[in-house]
Each structure stands twice: as C-alpha cells, then as structure tokens.
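Deliverable D4.2, example record:
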Amino acid sequence: MNKKGMSAILLAAGFSSRMGKLKALLPWQGKTLIEYQIEQIHQARVREIVVVLGYQADQLHSVMTQYDHLKIVRNDHYKQGKSSSIRIGASNVSDNAKGIFICNVDQPVPSHTLTKMSDKLIQSAAIIPVYENKRGHPILFHGNLKDDLLAVRENTKGLRQIVSDYAERIMYLEVQDPSILFNFNKPEDYLKNFSEGGLP
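Output generated by the structure prediction step:
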C-alpha cells in the first residue's frame, strides 16, 4: 500500500488528570511527547496528520508552531470523552485516505513500527500491533472505515466496537517493539518506561 495515502489522528485533548500534569508536554527522547509523536508519524511518511486539542489547547498549540504540515483542530466537547475527539479528528481526515492511524499522545511509538503497519494494510479492515502476545497501539484502520470512526460513542465502547464489528478482518501484526504497550496514565507508568527507553 502506498504510504503517501496514510492519515493519522493524534489525540491530545484530555485532562491528564491521573498524571497530574499535561502528558503531551512530558519529555521524551529529548523532545516533548507531542513533538516526538508528530515527528515519528511524519517520518513514517504519513501524508496527513490531524491533531485534536481540547484541554489547555492554546498551550499545546504553541509547542507545535514549528510544524507547518499539521491540521490542528479543537474539540470543545473533550469533557465528553475520547470518542468525541475521534469523531472530530475523523471529520477532518481526507475522504481519500487509504488508512487512518488513531494515535494517543501518551502512547509513543517509533516510525519504523508505523511504517511496518502501513505496509501491511491491504485487505484488512484494521491492523493492531502485537508484542509478546499482547495487543498494543496505535490501531491502523482502513480508510473505508472512516464512517465507522465518525460514529464512535463512549456508550458503545468506542473503538472496541469497530474492532468487534470487523473481527474477522482484523490483522494482528507481530512487532519487536515493546513501546506499542506504553500507556502513560499515571506518573509511575511514565517513569518506569522513561528509565527503560525514553532517555535521549
């Protein structure tokens, strides 16, 4: 599949309440998490990057001024949950996107894993990376599922509902990349992984 047809939605609208500070601005590999994510997605030759902001949007927007290839949108309803940000992100993705990554700002994954996923998206409805028999992130959805992304709701389990609906067409891709399991909800999650792999 032509990676030039890939799009990505980077979700950065949440409160970061369990972390106690904005997760998007935590240091990672000599940058902030949001900068690292943007650059890795771009290095994977993803054509279109839609960044969804909400809480502290102005502060996060100021960090991204050096990137001129982004589509930055705001979710004024971010208090309603992640599904509201996915819907707004999907509504700003091009209709001809061949694949759509759903990336969370607190789940950094390097470009080589994103590229490997892009290369495998042909007939599958979605690709979910797997490391040591554990499912990770991000999920790469086929562009044909854009309408499904536009319809996600918190009360129907968000993305899990789409994965369930297309269960027979999901590819679980084995990768040698433990970062697909990173999930920085609390300070201890971040500090553990920072010491193991996040240092510059």
